[in-house]
Amino acid sequence: MSQIDWAILIITLTSIVIYGIYKSRTTKNLEGYFLSNRSLPWYLVLLSIMGTQASAITFLTGPGQAYSDGMRFVQYYFGLPLAMIVIAIFFVPVFSRLKVYTAYEFLEHRFDVKTRTFTSALFLLSRGLSTGVSIFAPSLVLSSLMGWNIYYTNFVMGGLLIIYTMSGGAKAVAHTQKLQMIIVFVALFITGYLAVKLLPEAIGFTDALKVGGQNGKMNIITTGFTDKGFDWKDKYNIWSGLIGGFFLALSYFGTDHSQVGRYLTAKNIKESRKGLLINGLVKVPMQFFILLIGILIFSFYQYNKGPVYFDAVTLQQAKQTVKKDSLNMLELQYSKAFEQKNMPEANAVEKTFKGVMEERCQRRNLTIPTIFFYGL
Fold first, then answer.
1. I need a surface site. Which of 16, 59, 108, 206 has the fewest CB within 10 A?
2. Mean pLDDT value across residues 333-353
3. 22-51, pLDDT tens digit by residue?
4. Distances from the Cα of 17 to the Cα of 5, 20, 22, 39, angstroms
């Protein structure tokens, strides 16, 4: 990384922490810490909801999902707008009327303190594991870029997160997520623009989409039906998106306090509902755009030779093992296939190469998340 890269990274991370603490400086009581004194407008509620749902994993793995499997993953979100309507009608008024601090406080009113304690413990356990994965994703990127030990990057990322969330509470989270969403979307637009800009001169945006379509990547709507009937092993289709996506979103936004806590901070019921409903409207096109970035990147690499494996640090480590001859041979096959413009063969070699690397990671008992551009 250059000095400019370091300066941007340090200034951005430091500014987010300072801004979050500054915006929450008036938070002096329990309601202020947990609920921002129920004072946030709908647009901050919206950005906070989106920022909580769309973690770094979404933006790192979404394009990678489309790169490898096409656009059909967008169907996973088709049930979300329906769930937002149900929650806005039935859930929000109940939480607002009871003036609860958490979703689980409602369970104490409805049942008893044991039920509340049990569900709160489950939430803390599941959300702790989920947050760990969300921190691990960008930490893995920083580790690969800088050559740092993954434990150090986890410590830096998690430490900064703890500073502004512990000191500022819900208001700090809402305002910092506003900045984070802006940064992420600007970065995505720049990535998409460069992916098209760096294509050969005669190839434009529509041509890039055609290349994706010719390779089966523009499979936006799929029914799950084949010549042999319905494929029950097909994870992403219109039915799993509408039915499964609806109930998943209903449980997540209706009972998980990481989301419930966001719309409890709104000024009133109207602001809560507006934030939820607009989230339902913008989430599908947002996810569509994120996946579309993967299609543009896929098209870019049909004309530009990329590394067969994007995690350079892990690749160098793998070449120090008994697999080095196999990896070198696969790299040669990949280069030859690309030079001959035999993209089906190049893509097949790339998959084989990744398989070898994943097998090595599994033997080391490493988790293999689908990280965009890092071949895992």
1. 206
2. 69
3. 766 655 677 767 777 787 888 888 888 887
4. 19, 5, 9, 21
The CATH number fitting domain 3-303, selected from 1.10.1740.10, 1.20.1730.10, 3.40.220.10, 1.25.10.10: 1.20.1730.10
Phi and psi based region of residue 368 (left: phi greater than 0; alpha: psi -120 to 50; beta: remaining): beta
* Residue 53 near residue 259 (C-beta atoms within 8 A): yes
Q: Which amino acid is present at 104?
A: Y
Q: How many residues does the chain have?
A: 376
pTM assigned to the model? 0.80
Write the pLDDT tens digit of every residue in 55-102.
777 777 888 889 888 999 999 999 999 999 999 999 999 888 888 888
Q: Which two tokens stand for residue 210?
A: 């055609």
Bridge partners, 266 (sequence order): 40
End-to-end CA distance of the chain: 22
- Count of alpha carbons within 13 Å of 117, Cβ hemisphere only? 3
